[in-house]
Design brief:
Blueprint lengths: L3 H9 L4 H13 L6 E4 L1 E2 L2 E3 L3 H16 L5 E6 L9 H9 L4 H8 L7 H9 L10 H9 L26 H12 L1 E2 L2 E7 L5 H19 L2 E7 L7 E2 L17 E2 L7 H5 L5 E5 L11 H30 L3 H13 L14 H12 L3 E8 L7 E6 L5 E6 L9 H8 L3 E2 L3 E5 L20 E7 L2 E7 L12 E6 L21
Parallel strand pairs: 2-3, 3-18, 4-6, 4-10, 6-7, 11-18
Antiparallel strand pairs: 1-12, 5-6, 8-9, 10-15, 11-14, 11-15, 12-13, 16-17
Helix pairs in contact: 3-11, 4-7, 8-9, 11-13, 12-13
Length: 498
């Protein structure tokens, strides 16, 4: 299947021939569906915190953070281009297509945070935004004739208006970081970016940091990384043979956010907050987000303490009573049911089982009430050994042709807004080898095209889905106000972004 030049190309990319061959095998045989046991609901895999519990968790977290006892990091995937935000506008600019969303954009143009910049760009060429044609406005907005927003990543677009200046999502994350990822006055934030945009991100950080450091009395440490080319996956033709470019080379494509597991594993912090670049709000709406982020971090620290205590007991004071206590702890608090052969295990085998299950990365995931948003949600899912555990599951991972599975998926009460707080170090302070806790069978296959030719692409297990399948997981209900993504430019007209 692979020629000598292919093998050289694969090695030069930093990939392994065995890995690429396995990807071809996934194209041929497909990925198995996840088997859902039931939806995670309040009291059954999903925690609803009382105001008193939230206050207690925040107090405990704030104390550790302010004392500098723990190191904190905010991790923001920000490498995707914003092209899909402007799909309707591109349709108008390229082919004159119009619809209600296009009309709304032009009717409300003055309400956008980028309005003044757009007005200035038009004026630089002698055009008045009040009399310019819609085509001229769209052209100066989307292309490098003006703002070039159609080619920029979301993190660099102006989202929100303030009295002194407009803010981009990158800047809103800086502000958030100062509010909940502040360890003794130090704020570490890591953005994953595409190589063609990194210089623009760095330029904005250099411009913005002095003001925000003064305003919030913190010192920022901002870092960047790119999605590694070695994590790209091979593309194939519809018949599953390798897709080749015109020059005969194999085609590799970025493998989705699951490829960022490598970037996450490189971070050095005790607590890591994960949040998407476009899920930000103006300052007057940040309070609930800050409270719940701190509460999630408090839960991670509380459960980490419990887990490490149990590990000590297993290794030093092992007895049958402890095994029974651990069985209850896993079922009732970590939402992990035992494997089918658990009852027949010896005491030593049970000890080894619990030690292995305790000694894993830990995450608390915020979940909002399901209001019809597309995407994944919290479920109990069956594992190969007959046990069940909490998983964030996407619709593509479920066999919707199976009535029972489809019904379970439709009955989900909550939705995954990508609101995670993670602990990726063990008791010795060493970062876990995160790939060991990934389920490789939870990838995705999608239909794409290049230069008019159809192809099949493959995504790695999603960062918060299969890439974290074997983590200790806690699902927590968070309020809907903490979830305000911007998927289209007109989402910026919603009251949450005004």
């Amino acid at each position: 299947m692979f020629q000598e030049n292919d093998i050289i190309q694969i090695k030069e990319r930093g990939s392994e021939l065995e890995t690429v061959s396995q990807q071809i095998d996934y194209f041929v045989n497909g990925f198995p569906f996840i088997t859902l046991s039931k939806a995670a609901t309040i009291g059954d895999g999903l925690i609803r915190l009382t105001p008193q519990q939230i206050d207690g968790l925040i107090d405990a977290y704030d104390q550790l953070a302010s004392d500098g006892v723990i190191t904190l990091m905010k991790f923001v995937p920000a490498s995707g281009a914003a092209t899909r935000m402007f799909k309707a506008l591109f349709g108008f600019l390229d082919g004159g297509k119009t619809d209600a969303s296009v009309d709304s954009f032009f009717e409300n143009i003055e309400k956008f945070a980028f309005y003044e910049d757009l007005k200035t760009a038009l004026e630089s060429d002698g055009l008045d935004i009040a009399t310019a044609t819609k085509t001229q406005i769209a052209s100066y907005f989307l292309t490098d004739k003006g703002l070039g927003y159609g080619e920029l990543p979301k993190g660099l677009l102006k989202f929100h208006n303030y009295n002194t200046r407009s803010r981009t999502p990158l800047e809103e994350h800086l502000v958030e970081g100062a509010k909940y990822a502040n360890a003794g006055g130090n704020v570490q934030i890591h953005f994953t970016v595409s190589p063609e945009h990194q210089d623009k991100f760095e330029k904005l950080v250099v411009e913005a940091l002095p003001s925000y450091q003064t305003t919030y009395g913190v010192k920022y440490f901002v870092s960047f990384s790119e999605q590694k080319s070695a994590t790209d996956t091979i593309a194939v033709n519809p018949d599953n043979s390798p897709f080749r470019e015109k020059d005969g080379n194999l085609l590799f494509r970025p493998a989705g956010h699951g490829a960022l597991l490598d970037n996450l594993a490189q971070l050095d912090a005790d607590i890591i907050f994960i949040k998407n670049i476009d899920n930000v709000v103006p300052d007057h709406l940040k309070e609930e987000t800050i409270r719940y982020k701190k509460a999630l971090a408090g839960i991670v620290l509380e459960y980490q303490k419990k887990i490490w205590s149990y590990m000590d007991k297993l290794q030093n004071n092992f007895n049958e009573e402890l095994l029974e206590e651990l069985d209850s702890f896993f079922k009732d608090e970590l939402s992990v049911s035992a494997p089918e052969n658990f009852a027949s295990m010896t005491s030593e085998e049970k000890k080894a089982y619990f030690l292995a299950k305790l000694d894993r990365p830990l995450r608390a995931c915020g979940m909002v009430k399901n209001e019809g948003e597309p995407g994944g949600g919290p479920f109990w899912a069956k594992n190969a050994d007959g046990s069940s555990s909490l998983q964030i599951v996407e619709s593509a991972q479920v066999n919707v042709d199976d009535e029972e599975q489809n019904e379970i998926f439709k009955n989900a009460t909550h939705f995954n807004p990508v609101d995670l707080v993670c602990a990726i170090k063990n008791r010795q302070g060493v970062t876990y080898e995160l790939k060991k806790f990934r389920d490789p069978l939870t990838g995705f296959i999608t239909a794409k095209s290049k230069n008019g030719r159809e192809l099949k692409a493959q995504e790695l297990p999603g960062l918060w889905n299969g890439a974290m399948a074997d983590w200790n997981t806690i699902f927590v209900e968070v309020p809907l106000i903490t979830f305000n993504p911007v998927k289209t430019v007109n989402d910026l007209l919603r009251e949450q972004h005004q």
